[in-house]
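// run 5 | inverse folding | seed 20
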C-alpha cells in the first residue's frame, strides 16, 4: 500500500496531494492571484509565492489526508517542464524532505502527469489510449501504452491551445487567464456568427499562431475582415464598441474554431492508430465546448471518452501523486544529487 506525498510547483499553483495505493486522499491547491494584474504569470513573483505557500500547502495536504510524514513511503515532485524558479522551490523542498525522512524521491514529468490524471478515478481508460493534453504551455496528442510508456505523436509547432484562448482574451480586454472567461461568454453567443480560419497543417501537429493573427486583424478593423488592411483599421473607440456589442458571439466563434482544430486532429490520430479509447487532459480540458465536442465526436466515431474530474484538469498535485504511484511500482526513483534531478523522464 505505497503512500505518496506529491508536490507541484511548475507555474503559478503551489499544490500538494497524498495518494495511498492509487487512491487520492487529499489534493490541495493554493493559486496565486497576484499575476492577474500583470496580464500573465510573472516568474519572479511566482517563485516567491511558492516559497511562502509550500510549507502550509504540504501541511494541509497531509492533515486532510490524515497521514503523518512518517507514514509516507516516497516523495514525488514536478521536475519539468515549467518556470525554473518555480520548479526549484518544489524540487528542493521535496529533496530536503526525502533526505531528512530517508525516503525515496520520484521526479515526475508534468505532461506525463496530465496524461495519467485519467487514471485517478473510474471509469479509467484501457491501454493503449490516446490523450489530447491541452494546457497553457502545451498541446499534444500522446499515445499511452502503459503508465510509464508514453509517446508524443503530435504537438503544436507554435502557440498552445490555452495560449490561443488567453491571447484572444487579452485582445478582447479580458483579464488573465482568459480561457475560462471566453468559455463563460461563449455560452451566451452564436458560434456560427464569425468564421475564423482553420490552419492548413498536415499530420498530427497543431498550429494556432495564424488564428491569433487573424483575430487581431479582425478586431483591429472592427469585424470587417480577417486580413491586414491598413485603410480599414478602426479607431480605438470603434474597436472597443465592436467588442462590447459582439463579445459573446466573438467568444463562441473563436472557441468553436479552437475546439474543431483540436478534435479534428484527435479524429485523425484515432484513425491512424486504430485506438478508440480517447482522453483529454490539461487546463483547457475544463472548457465546456471541448467537453461537449468530445462527447459528440465520441458518439459519432464510437469512441470511449474520458475526462478527468475538474480538480485534476488544471494544474494540481493529485496528478503528480498518481504518476508517483506508478513510478513507485516501476521502481523509477530519482537520485538525490543535483545532476540526476535535472533529468525528468517520461
Ligand atoms: O494545465 P494548466 O492549468 O496549466 C498549464 O500547465 O499551463 O492550463 C492552464 C490553461 C490556461 O491557458 C487557461 O486559460 C486554460 O488552461 N483554461 C481554459 C479553461 N480553464 C482553463 N481554457 C478554456 N476554457 C476553460 N474553461
Ligand atoms: Zn499543466
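// decoded
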Amino acid at each position: 500500500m505505497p503512500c505518496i506525498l506529491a508536490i507541484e510547483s511548475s507555474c503559478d499553483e503551489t499544490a500538494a496531494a497524498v495518494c495511498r495505493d492509487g487512491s487520492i486522499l487529499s489534493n490541495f491547491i493554493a493559486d496565486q492571484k497576484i499575476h492577474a494584474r500583470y496580464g500573465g504569470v510573472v516568474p519572479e513573483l511566482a517563485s516567491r509565492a511558492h516559497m511562502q505557500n509550500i510549507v502550509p500547502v504540504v501541511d494541509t495536504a497531509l492533515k486532510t489526508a490524515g497521514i503523518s510524514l512518517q507514514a509516507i513511503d516516497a516523495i514525488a515532485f514536478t521536475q519539468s517542464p515549467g518556470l525554473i524558479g518555480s520548479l526549484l522551490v518544489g524540487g528542493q523542498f521535496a529533496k530536503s524532505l526525502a533526505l531528512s525522512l530517508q525516503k525515496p524521491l520520484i521526479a515526475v514529468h508534468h505532461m506525463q502527469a496530465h496524461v495519467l490524471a485519467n487514471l485517478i478515478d473510474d471509469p479509467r481508460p484501457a491501454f493503449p489510449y490516446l490523450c489530447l493534453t491541452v494546457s497553457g504551455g502545451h498541446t499534444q496528442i500522446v499515445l499511452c501504452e502503459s503508465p510509464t510508456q508514453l509517446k508524443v505523436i503530435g504537438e503544436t509547432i507554435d502557440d498552445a491551445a490555452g495560449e490561443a484562448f488567453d491571447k484572444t482574451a487579452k485582445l478582447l480586454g479580458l483579464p488573465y487567464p482568459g480561457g475560462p472567461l471566453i468559455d463563460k461568454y461563449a455560452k451566451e453567443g452564436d458560434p456560427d456568427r464569425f468564421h475564423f480560419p482553420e490552419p492548413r497543417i498536415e499530420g498530427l501537429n497543431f498550429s494556432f499562431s495564424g488564428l491569433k493573427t487573424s483575430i487581431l486583424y479582425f478586431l483591429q478593423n472592427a469585424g470587417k475582415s480577417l486580413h491586414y488592411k491598413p485603410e480599414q483599421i478602426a479607431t480605438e473607440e470603434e474597436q472597443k464598441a465592436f467588442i462590447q456589442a459582439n463579445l459573446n458571439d466573438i467568444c463562441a466563434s473563436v472557441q468553436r474554431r479552437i475546439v474543431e482544430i483540436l478534435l479534428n486532429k484527435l479524429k485523425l490520430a484515432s484513425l491512424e492508430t486504430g485506438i478508440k479509447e480517447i482522453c483529454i487532459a490539461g487546463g483547457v480540458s475544463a472548457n465546456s465546448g471541448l467537453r461537449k465536442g468530445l462527447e459528440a465526436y465520441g458518439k459519432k466515431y464510437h469512441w470511449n471518452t474520458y475526462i478527468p474530474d475538474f480538480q485534476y484538469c488544471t494544474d494540481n498535485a493529485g496528478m503528480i501523486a498518481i504518476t508517483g504511484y506508478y513510478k513507485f511500482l516501476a521502481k523509477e526513483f530519482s537520485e538525490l544529487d543535483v545532476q540526476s534531478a535535472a533529468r525528468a523522464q517520461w
